[in-house]
Write a structure and sequence with these properties.
The protein is of the alpha/beta class and about 240 residues long. The protein has a single domain, classed as Alpha-Beta Barrel (TIM Barrel). An 8-stranded parallel barrel has the order 1-4-5-6-7-10-11-12, surrounded by 8 helices. A hairpin with a 2-residue loop joins β7 and β8. The radius of gyration is 16 Å and the shape is globular. The relative contact order is 0.15.
């Protein structure tokens, strides 16, 4: 199971939010490429980048920073946030990104999702962000009436590379993952699952891994930035088990 460091971008800086609240930010660095380099040196084989402003505005807002990350590291990088057109998907993937995450677009524009999956099979990730079991959209500023599990079932036949499932209530709270919700997602998903939200310690990573081989990885943010979880140590411990 991959341990995937997160780099969340807001106003050109690396930040962490609490439960997706754009007003509740902690700034960790103005040097985004340096943060990516740190995680690569720590052993990460994949880095997860989120354009927070892009997610709210509906179009990319951090293209220079993302390109700088790609120019700095040799590991795979995936990006989400504000990707609402096939032109944006093409631009990102042609720039060297490994995969892109579609969240709002997956719910609002099914034809676009299908086109992206057809044109770039297995390089499109479904961003399944849930608040109270329902899909949140537009950078988590709105919640739809669609249940996350129902959306997952609706897109089961598409060429999606993996599902990135985030429990918003746990995001940035350091309270551990919502294991019961994750169990349901893993059981219903026909795709690999990447878990996000609440992972704080090695025991949380073990709990996620115990959900089965369908779990591809776990995205970790605040715990890494606050030093509650050491990336090299976590990778070594998981690899030794």
């Amino acid at each position: 199971m991959l341990v995937i460091p997160a780099i969340d971008l807001k106003d050109g800086r690396c930040v962490r939010l609490r439960q997706g609240d754009m007003a509740a930010e902690t700034v960790y660095s103005d040097d985004v490429p340096a943060v990516a380099r740190k995680w690569q040196q720590g052993g990460a084989s994949l880095i997860h980048v989120v354009d927070l402003n892009g997610a709210v505005d509906g179009e990319p807002r951090h293209l220079p920073q993302i390109q700088a990350v790609l120019n700095t590291v040799s590991v795979k990088v995936q990006v989400g946030g504000g990707i609402r057109t096939i032109e944006t998907v093409r631009r990102y993937l042609h720039a060297g990104l490994s995969r892109v995450v579609l969240g709002t677009a997956a719910l609002k524009d099914r034809a676009f999702l299908e086109q992206a999956c057809t044109e770039f099979p297995c390089r499109i990730l479904l961003g399944l962000d849930a608040r109270g079991g329902k899909v949140a959209v537009k950078g988590w500023t709105a919640v739809s009436e669609t249940k996350a599990i129902d959306l997952l079932k609706e897109v089961s036949g598409l060429g999606i590379g993996a599902v990135v499932y985030t429990d918003i209530s746990r995001d940035g709270m350091l309270e551990g993952p919502n294991v019961s919700a994750l169990e349901e997602v893993v059981e219903c998903s026909s795709f690999p699952v990447i878990v996000s939200g609440g992972i704080t310690c090695l025991e949380d990573l073990r709990a996620v891994r115990a959900l089965g081989p369908r779990v591809e990885g776990a995205i970790v943010g605040k715990a890494l930035y606050d030093g509650k979880l050491d990336l090299p140590a976590a990778l070594a411990a998981l690899g030794a088990e």
